[in-house]
Design a protein that fits this description.
This protein is mainly β. It contains 1 helix and 11 strands; from the N terminus they run E-E-E-E-E-E-E-E-E-H-E-E.
Amino acid sequence: EVHLVESGGGLVQPGGSLRLSCAASGFTFSSYAMTWVRQATGAGLEWVSSINTDGSTYYGDSVKGRFTISRDNAKNTLYLQLNSLQTEDTAKYYCAKARLAVPYSAYNLRLLGSYDAWGQGTQVTVSS
């Protein structure tokens, strides 16, 4: 059974940093593209960043240059480094596993339907 468990969220001041982790189990982690999405209160899901099986990375415009996605296949763990945090980054952050064990195009990585397993999320609150 696939399990994704996020951690690392918390309360941080504007301009601060956090590192989110997503521990994966139940599948061959290195064979799947992974993604981070977020959901602010009262809003829909927003795609944040993805990493392909070859390590190529992709970012939404609102986080480009501030967030960094990475993966450690030996530890079956996905990361998201959040720097220069803004109040608008306040949201619950979820990691998700791609549906197929193939490299995804940049277009398909942005589609929420490309993913078939989600974690329970970790809350990030940016406030002074």
